[in-house]
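Researcher: Re-running this chain for the archive, since the previous output was lost when a drive failed. Same request as before.
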Amino acid sequence: MDGLAAGASTLGNAVIDHCPNARMLDAEAWTRRAGGRLLLGSVLCVGGVVAMARYISDHPDGERVTVDASGHTVREFVRGVDDTTIMLLGLGIAACGLGAVVFLALFVHGRLRRA
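Model: Regenerated structure tokens:
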């Protein structure tokens, strides 16, 4: 139950009065309890950013040289990563970067509220 329920404060007070064993969590209790998972999420997002950036850098554009049996050399341009893939990886980098910042901010917020 949260504050958006109709009569939330009355309902909450009734539960507290009649059920002394009921768990009562404040608004930031989940960030304190989920600290390790939030930090792991942040690390995984940073790992995703690194993996996507490495994929782009490991596939540069280049030139392929082939020589046929008669000795003719053919040079052709080979794209490393096409534009659509770079756009999708860029969006993935932005999403993972934002996720890492949010997870880290929630982790730090939970640790500061612990005291």
